[in-house]
Design brief:
heterodimer, A: about 220 residues, mainly alpha, about 80% helix, B: alpha/beta, Rossmann fold
């Protein structure tokens, strides 16, 4: 049981870290570009919200299976397949949770407006300097929301990890799948323990997020 | 010497501005609402792109081949609304400018703080300041970035009467002590009379130098103003004698 919880947390933490790095430039571009086709990209990144996880999982599985075009690119590096591996699971989770990272960060960047960046430019800050020292701190709330949503969403994932991971104990088996298997085996005690744990965990995460946002709002109102 | 020739348009508005400004003193940029004062200022700063040339003290900021981005121009800009960086304290805002300004002549930290009366505000958060206080911080911040040219876009117009009364004396002090060329956009005849050495008038996007020296014998500053501004000035003169505020606020752009 410790093993399965550990795999789940490792997956969620890694997915969150990767997505914060990937989603930030994407969200920046979506927030600031004026081209119309950015909405095409925005729609594609939002797809995982609408698609059944099994659809996404199915395509990712095909992409990660041996002899797929993607895998033949990786073959020279000695990687034949990523299906049913922890790495494959991370890739699937990153894609699945992408919109939960991009959207809050994009909204936070859009809310900034032009002015703080213009101020930074007239104070001799280069665009990169302005991004890290003005835009990013001002969008901190968006980053926090994105991190919490991605982490929690990954913990709650079922369809995608089932398709890609195959529930190999110690490697790709996560809590949500173990619960399903416990129930199927009529092992209700263990199922209860994990399910109740998830409920408590999710509540704590969401409550914590709301309290953090509230504190930020109260501070802003007081200031 | 600052020399510019800027053209370009969007929608129904066409900017066509050409002038030379001496490298010292305050040049007021005046004109009715929507005449392109802010547009011209943004073009000088490089915040908006368009066709033309800008030379400042022999340095090219823009010509047909070059466009120096604003962060490499050394241009100070005081926006109409006090635009402090809200995640930094007053000190943080000032240090943000100072740290990126490099060394050279220009305002030192304590000097700028003293010049704008910010000694007691240093550790405060921008959100706890009054409008006038914020604008004073914004002006000190612009000075600390050691600009070659300081642009001020109606820095008093978003303030109430108390805020204006708070900031104006500091601007007068700066006017007397600064070596820096300043372009000061204003609607307000009183501000111009108190702060500017000369004035340029822009109308429907069209501006032609040279600037009219306000102190020069024979130059009539009233000639620069439109009827509404002359009335405002007259009211202000009256008000100064009678010690009451002018009746109405200047229009916002």
């Amino acid at each position: 049981m410790v093993e399965v919880v550990w795999t789940t947390i490792a997956l969620a933490a890694l997915t969150t870290a990767i997505l914060l790095v990937l989603a930030t430039p994407l969200a920046w571009w979506l927030a600031r570009s004026r081209s119309w086709w950015k909405e095409v990209v925005a729609a594609i990144t939002a797809l995982p919200i609408v698609l059944p996880p099994t659809v996404l999982g199915f395509y990712v599985l095909i992409a990660l299976a041996p002899a797929s075009p993607l895998m033949s690119l990786l073959a020279p590096f000695g990687i034949r397949t990523l299906a049913f591996t922890f790495t494959g699971l991370v890739i699937g989770s990153v894609l699945y949770s992408l919109p939960f990272a991009v959207q809050p960060i994009r909204a936070a960047f859009e809310q900034l407006g032009e002015r703080p960046l213009e101020v930074a430019a007239t104070l001799r800050a280069s665009p990169l300097d302005a991004f890290f020292n003005v835009a990013a701190p001002l969008a901190a709330r968006g980053f926090l929301t994105a991190a919490v949503l991605v982490f929690a969403h990954t913990i709650g994932e079922f369809g995608v990890v089932l398709m890609i991971g195959g529930a190999i104990p110690g490697k790709t088996e996560v809590v949500s799948i173990r619960i399903y298997q416990d129930v199927e085996a009529l092992n209700f005690v263990d199922a209860h323990r994990l399910a109740a744990g998830l409920v408590a965990f999710s509540f704590v995460v969401l409550f914590g997020l709301l309290m953090l946002q509230r504190r930020a709002d109260v501070r802003r109102a007081a200031a | 010497m600052i020399r510019f020739r800027l053209r370009g348009g969007f929608g129904g508005f066409v900017l066509d501005a050409e002038a030379e400004i001496p490298a010292q003193g305050v040049t007021a940029l005046i004109g009715p609402s929507g005449s392109g004062k802010t547009t011209l200022l943004r073009r000088l700063a490089g915040l908006t792109r368009g066709e033309g040339d800008v030379h400042v003290d022999g340095v090219v900021w823009q010509d047909s081949r070059t466009f120096v981005p604003p962060h490499r121009r050394g241009v100070g800009y005081v926006f109409q609304e006090p635009s402090l960086l809200p995640h930094l304290s007053v000190r943080g805002n000032l240090e943000f400018a100072q740290r990126r300004a490099g060394s050279g002549p220009g305002a030192a930290f304590d000097e700028a703080v003293a010049m704008l009366g910010l000694e007691r505000l240093r550790e405060r958060s921008p959100a706890t300041l009054s409008g006038g206080e914020r604008q004073r911080v914004a002006i000190a911040r612009a000075l600390l970035s050691r600009p070659r040219l300081l642009l001020m876009d109606e820095p008093l117009s978003s303030l109430d009467a108390a805020g204006k009364a708070d900031v104006l004396p500091y601007l007068e002090t700066l006017h007397r002590s600064l070596r820096l060329p300043v372009v000061y956009v204003s609607h307000d005849a009183i501000e111009i009379a108190r702060l500017a050495d000369r004035a340029l008038r822009i109308e429907s996007g069209r501006l032609r130098g040279p600037a009219v020296e306000l102190a020069q014998a024979g130059a009539d500053p009233l000639a620069l103003l439109d009827a509404a501004q002359v009335r405002a000035l007259a009211r202000a003169a009256l008000a100064a004698g009678l010690d009451v505020e002018p009746a109405d606020e200047p229009r916002r752009e």
